[in-house]
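Record 1 of the preview.
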Amino acid sequence: MRHGSRGSHGGHGDHGGCRTGGGRAGRAGRTARLLLAPLVAALLLGAGPDGSGETVPLDGDRPGEHLDVTLTRVVDPAGRPPAPGADRLVAVGLRLENTGTVPYQDSPAPAAHLLGTDGQRFTGLSGTTDVGPALPGPALPDTVTLDPGRSASGYVVFRVPQEADLAAVQFALDAGLGDDVAQWSLA
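->
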């Protein structure tokens, strides 16, 4: 998986585009454009140093199931721990937009993960935070339902050890079990 992008077991390899004349100058120009493209995209999308602002398109298991997922904010810590030495709370803001042709219904908390620099993986929890509203919608507790063209925003909360250093945020459809995974670097 790449920073601010999606990874999958069957990713899309078609990178179409215009082609220029061959030779060393043509290759150098193409190489420069390839190296600058992620930086320009991040600036245009307003991506923050923690990957926030970057939108990643995901494909679901059902035909017509497509979701654009944007990491909007990471708040660490998101409130005070209940007791000295207790785990800290981290709130991850996400925006989900149904860009597909079928309704999207899923539980965003188990679909979101924080990855520690030591390889630990933390699964999101349903719950509220003082930072902002939780992501689940009003239809079913802990579930977001979006018709095509609709979007929802909110926070997924994580409980992580005080000493944990965080490396990345991940999100996958199908309650986190989907093959197509978005990942944002927090470094």
